[in-house]
Design brief:
Keywords: Membrane, Transmembrane, Transmembrane helix. The chain contains 15 helices and 9 strands. By secondary structure, the protein is α+β, with helices and mostly antiparallel strands.
Length: 393
């Protein structure tokens, strides 16, 4: 009885969410390597052309920001800067404005531009309409099915939650009746010599078992993006496990250098000088009425969960706080690593490969599941038809 109910639940939840799960898995597979693929696909954007003869010190941030802003319409404001201290990379200035209530991807983004600037010459190397860029479309398809946040996000969120139920019910259905002989072997190994219907069933069964753990990781970390309350809950839960108090990050104010006239230029100069091994820095530009500036220092370009946040005060012209990922409570640290875990960036290239292959396996499960369902439906119709023929013959 229990297995019958589980099979019914597994089948119909899979039928309802199968298309969404396949889309999420395939787009996740592609996006896993987006950092590497972008550099190969768009070298003219991300790499400085002709580095010889250029100064070794970047121009002031205010100058670069002015040049980038001039390349955009006056109503499109730059709100973020991603910069790379390595000498052969451009800096990326982002201008984004969204409509949270709009339907469809092209209505959700009022505009989304990336301006690629040579930080040593100040030249704008490329202006990208990120609204139509392939990897951005892939990301939005993954996040909200290109339906806009208001309409697509709930579908993705609840499909992800249901996927966890499907995975857990799948392990109940996979469980061998006898842990010996042919049944046990079929649960762990695929026999390619059987008929295609049996092969498809075994593929669904065996791949489902081997991808269970990584599928659960994808789904649970996905829930943290989909439901902020869920993320807060597990962060609070893991924080309880740490008895010691994490450092607040407050420091004695450190005066900034005064080499430049602008506060933001001196703040960035401090960050570049004191974090020479950083692979990336990110600045969220604040409104003119605010008095501070924050810079995120990433020690590994591809890992968002390993960082130092530097907080600068304009009025005092100083650095007054540093928040490091190493100082976080257990729960906060896990929350910061959520993106890295979800995308496979938590380790080196090997974890990305595992994440990519795991996504492909998850994408295959709804497909093989649909085939099983259609085969059984066809068999039932055929059986019913034969019974009617026998009845009237």
């Amino acid at each position: 009885m229990f297995k019958t109910v589980t099979l019914w639940l597994h089948k119909w939840l899979g039928i309802i969410t199968g298309v969404v799960v396949t889309i999420l898995s395939l787009t996740g597979c592609i996006y896993t390597f987006q950092d590497e693929l972008k550099l190969v696909a768009y070298p003219e954007k991300y790499f400085i052309s002709g580095t010889t003869g250029h100064p070794t010190i970047p121009l002031p941030l205010s100058t670069l920001l002015h040049n980038a802003q001039k390349s955009l319409p006056t109503d499109e404001k730059i709100t973020r800067v991603d910069l790379y201290p390595t000498k052969n990379r451009t800096w990326v200035f982002r201008a984004v404005k969204t409509d949270e209530n709009a339907f469809g991807h092209w209505n959700y983004y009022k505009y989304y531009k990336r301006v690629f600037v040579n930080p040593y010459s100040g030249q704008v190397q490329h202006v990208e309409n990120s609204k139509t860029e392939f990897f951005q479309l892939t990301l939005q398809l993954h996040l909200n099915l290109l339906l806009g946040k208001r309409f697509g996000h709930p579908i993705v969120a609840w499909s992800t939650a249901i996927f966890i139920i499907i995975l857990l019910s799948g392990i109940v259905l996979w469980w061998p009746k006898k842990w010996k002989g042919k049944n046990l072997k079929r649960s762990f190994w695929i026999d390619t010599k059987v008929k295609w219907k049996r092969l498809n069933h075994d593929l669904h069964n065996v791949i489902g078992f081997y991808s269970l753990f990584i599928g659960l990781i994808f789904a649970i970390t996905g829930l943290a993006f989909a439901f902020p309350g869920f993320k807060k809950s597990y962060i609070a839960t893991f924080n309880v496990l740490q008895s010691t108090t994490a450092s607040s990050g407050r420091i004695s104010p450190v005066p900034l250098p005064t080499a430049e006239n602008q506060f933001q230029d001196n703040a960035l100069r401090y960050a570049l000088t004191n974090y020479p091994t950083a692979e990336m820095m990110s600045i969220r530009l604040k409104k003119d009425t605010q008095t501070g500036m924050d810079i995120q220092v990433r020690h590994d370009e591809k890992r968002s969960g390993v960082f130092d946040w530097l907080y600068f005060d304009r009025r005092g012209n100083n650095l007054y706080e540093i928040k490091s990922s190493e100082q976080l409570h257990y729960g906060d640290k896990l929350g910061a690593l959520n993106y890295d875990i979800h995308t496979g960036s938590i380790g080196n290239i090997s974890t990305k490969i595992i994440a990519c292959l795991g996504s492909l396996c998850c994408a295959s499960l709804p497909i093989t599941g649909y085939i099983i369902w259609m085969n059984k439906s066809k068999k039932k119709r055929k059986k019913g038809y034969q019974q009617n023929v026998n009845k009237y013959c």
